[in-house]
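Notes from the pairing session

We agreed to fold both candidates in a single pass and log them together. This is the raw record for the first candidate, unedited. Please don't reformat it; downstream parsing expects exactly this layout.

Candidate A
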Amino acid sequence: MKKLFLGMLMLIFVSACCTNFKSKSEDFTQYVNPFIGGAANGHTFPGACYPMGLVQPSPDTGNETWTYCSGYMFNDEKIWGFSQTHLNGTGCPDLGDIQLQPFTGKIERENYHSLYKKETQSAKPGYYAVTLDDFKVDVELTASPRVAFHRYTYNTPDPARLLVDLQYGIVSGTDRLNNHILESDVTVEDKYTISGHNQANQWVKRHYYFIIKFDRPFTALKELPKVKGNKAPRYVLDFDLKEGEQLQVKVAMSTVSVDGAKKNLAEEIAGWDFEGVHLAAKAAWNDKLSRAVVTGTKEQKENFYTCMYHLFIQPNNITDVDGNYRGADDKVLNAPGGNYYSTLSLWDTYRTAHPLYTILAPELVDGFVNTMIAHQKAQGYVPIWTLWGKENHCMIGNHSVPVMVDAYLKGFRGFDAEAAFQAIKTSLTENHYKGDWDVYLKYGYLPFDIVKRESVSRTLEYVYDDYCAMKFAKVLGKDDDAKYFAKRAESYKNLFDTETKFMRGKNSKGEWRTPFDPYELGHGASKGNDFTEGNSWQYTWHVQHDPEGLVKLIGGKEEFVKKLDSLYKAESKREGEGFVLDVTGLIGQYAHGNEPSHHVAYFYNYAGAPWRTQEVVREVFDTQYKNCPDGLCGNDDCGQMSAWFIFSSMGFYPFNPCDDGYVFGAPQMEKIELNLTNGKKFVVEAKNLSRKNMYVHSVTLNGKSVLGFKISHDDIMKGGKLVFRMGAQPLSK
């Protein structure tokens, strides 16, 4: 065991050396507050996890509503138990596999929930702890990539017991909990071991395999009665423990087989060294967090590093230690390099999170692209939104496309470019669940009388992917394909109404939808609405690839600025039959809590009014990110909300996230030093920055004035120093 963990720690140390971080002794995990986003709409969880790990043991405090997509709400008074897998900041629930709850006293209960005091709850990257008041049990959690590790201290002479609930899961809808397990095969191997397999069906239908190991033998096992619909057992185990003694439990998981779970356990945590596992997880987190060294206030550091933490919880590597994984078609395959990533919330993360990985964690990028190529081979099209390797078809667009193209344009070559292009071309030309290409090509848009839902939003998202495909074809010398996709990339103009100056639904006869209300929200579940988690106010700006073209459509720079200003001055109301829970963080009709708005503040640069970008970015920082449980104005969405904060803190942002450089905003911290994995440093410094001095007066790169309002990816990766000089008045207003 000691040799295993010394090896793990040495690998992490070497990796940390490669990032050349400021101080090997500096603990960046001290600045992370995992409770940020754990209340209101953030949908984060505070439990222990390893960067990009398969498991995330964490407390569950509720279920069966949108509130509990991660299984946790900070303000709840009771903990239901501790399950092994959780989602970070999503808008749909799933996972919550294998709930464990240590308890004392009688077996027969209405439930096994326990009160707890907030002051006994603590969390840091790779570690969580709490005291269950009703049972007088101290709970501690940590994790390796594929194994959850629990330690319970029973502080009472009452009988020490453990609930092992294999029916549990994080679900949507009353009674779903009773029937979401479709099949279950569980074996009690001996008094130390339970193993098995469940097939669950919530957001996706998936298989998971597991082994549960105890460091003490259980003295009795009772299976609780099943209710109608239950397929999996719920056990209560007794342990012979004296007051103050501990029980340790390891839960290893696999998408492939029980044998795979056993291999994961044997190779990652062979013994019972809880502190060693915690130390290894902490070191792995410090490796990731140390890639940015921030100079700022305590609150700024905690917001920044918590965003870094949320960024690296996923995408999750779902392979076993031998590289095997279960793919979209349920076949067991072996991943190149041992990495196959899921929890790909691409409608969200293509915008900012994936461009940030190309800077902060380029070692991951080839694996992402190879995953997308493999998924297309199995499914027929690249990932849209995948969980445990399965497609859930949530949201719209085919936004693996910009991620793949951006990687190639930035010089990543650890994948087959021809296979990547063919995967993209097939996904954008052959009809599939979210690709109505025949209709799109016939009309140049999706008519609302043929495509009944999300016609405008889907058209605009299609157009961006077309643009990315065009760039890829062009650089590969595929001129005919480049021309084909370039023409499609102009299609956004077909839905712009020059009279109202809004994007608007149009039918197959070319007639605008009437009546038309730009405030009316829509969602995929809405009948007869043209928008996805938004309205025309928010989606009119969804032209990331051709901002100059949209400026021209709206009437030129002066008119464009007036129109964009009106977005922020509009009434902050939410109306219509659409799903509005995700449309949050309103500043006028700008909705920072949802992704279609994330690039919009940076649009002012293209209309000659960069000071307005600087003002809006400051307002978002002041109002939408706080160092507290309800500090996120919307779902973190697998690191996307956090990635916006990180980029915008540095004063630049991937407006067009397909290797089109980074558009300047205004830095929000005095100094941020990026420790790049190529051994170089890129330093961003804001001279004279204060709450009053929010405006950028000049920008220099390595002592030379920067012309224009962008910096390239190569400029960052070469290392150097970017200096913003700040002032109290807008420049050239």
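Candidate B (folded immediately after A)
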Amino acid sequence: MTTDAQTAAPAAETRGFKAEVRELLKLMIHSLYSHREIFLRELISNASDANDKLRFLALSEPALLDDGSELGIWIEADKDKGTVSIRDNGVGMTREEAIAHLGTIAKSGTAEFFGKLTGDAQKDSALIGQFGVGFYSAFIVADRVEVLSRRAGEPASAGVRWESAADGDYTVETIDHAQRGTTIVLHLKDDAKEFADAWRLRTLVRRYSDHIAFPVRMPKEGEATLDTEVVNQAQALWTRPRSDITDEEYQAFYRHITHDSNAPLAWSHNKVEGRREYTSLLYLPANAPFDLWQRDAARGLKLHVRRVFIMDDAEQFLPMYLRFVKGVLDSSDLPLNVSRELLQKDAEVEAMRGALTKRALDLVVRLAKDEPEKYTGFWKEFGQVLKEGVGEDMANRDKLLPLLRFASTHSESDDDNVSLADYVARMKAGQKRIYYVLAESRAAARSSPFIEGLRARGIEVLLLGDRVDPWITGQWHEFDGKQLQDASRGDLGLDELADAPPKAEAKDATPEQQALFERMAAVLGDSIEQVRASDRLTESPACLTRDDNDLSEQMRRMLAAAGRGDLPAGKASLEVNLSHPLLALLPKLGDDDFAALTRLLFDQSRLTEQGQLENPGEFVRRLNQLLVKLATAVV
């Protein structure tokens, strides 16, 4: 039925592309010249999606397919006119949808995408591949593109014609269009006329789109006839036996469902039969999408029921921390009218989710074991997301822990390349704990005063600077029988080491030292729990430490950002390095200078622990006063 908006729309109007579309068009035209043939893959993929959507809508509205025609894709080339057309008889578009879909990039991560572009054609080409080019790939080979479309269920008078020469504007008008679906006509550039050759197009269809589940038809070769023939296998790839599918076909299918021009790192194709019957095809991408950190962004597997497409992003079948996994799930048990709400309540779905999660993790485990170099790249892209599973998925924690990678003091590089197994293999004689330190970054962790004593004893420390680290270390406490120990909290247990001095040699604080601690504590009052000697420090004069059961400052900030700012703050203890010159100087100072230096040491320690001070101005004033006194004494 024609809507009021369509009736009121002008016959034709010229509009400007949104700024991000103009930028993307310019980049593609100049950056993807060496990959021009991808336009056909992208446009066929879009046509396939349009057919899938119509078949799904027809489950509840059978009249949408009342013409009885088989869903398919048609390609024609005209050498004389220099054109190529790609047609589908899928869901089609209204005038408003053509304006919305073809004039704007409605995709999360757009701003970040453009922010990462460098101007280097080769590097930008790879980024564009990650972002996905879709319809706009037509302009790689065409200097003018026409789109003719009619939405399924709408009358012929509600058709739309869209046209642009990628010059910043496009024209859209309402037309009579008898055919349901969409036809895209490419008016090829002079240097792209090779694509008007039917044999060339057939070759590209078989290379890039042989797996498309709908028949791709072209006029019969060498015949002046209106008859067409199917030029692809027209069989859903996941329904074929694994032994019949080549790596190239698996990679081509991945590009089809993700619009990612990069090949996947690995995949797993599996058919389950018995109590439950379903087929899954899961992929590990090589590059993170731009919306990876938007937890409400579309994610999940493409869901089919008995080969019928149901939805694009069925997030119920994999946990949030595996949101980067792409693929297809085809179930023989779910009802065709299944909805997202039903998926959330279905016991069969929960069982499939558990099995698919294990299968996806097995894929990651295999990559880490068999192709460690590839896994290093995978970890850089997805490691922080995978870490979330340590806190979210207790059932699979033992499988996740060996996959984790960290920076550590074993290497001067901050690259994530140390596994927990690596750490355990290098532990010192008698060492029973895995030491780590939390900070705002790996570089800050490496320079943390909390690990000075550990490093001096040759004990390796994991440097945790990812934003998810405070959370996961609060959820998991041991690996391979070794306890995790935060280097900034509690007793470090250094007397457990084989080279530790006998306990009988340990000395209590001397009366003079105890008096110093009490005098410092009196200055700081309720700000601290106590002052005590430190076995953590070798270079820094002081640090603040908390008990093992207290929240770390990083975790407290994370909870505050999540709206839990009402958590009571525990008191820290001030640990001091008695071998530091400033501690030797303290007892010699008068009361005012003693108090000023004590507060300065406390503020320095709080700055190290929290990364900020309650009163930075007072800290600077106190520091400047001491510097002036020092300068005066020197002069």
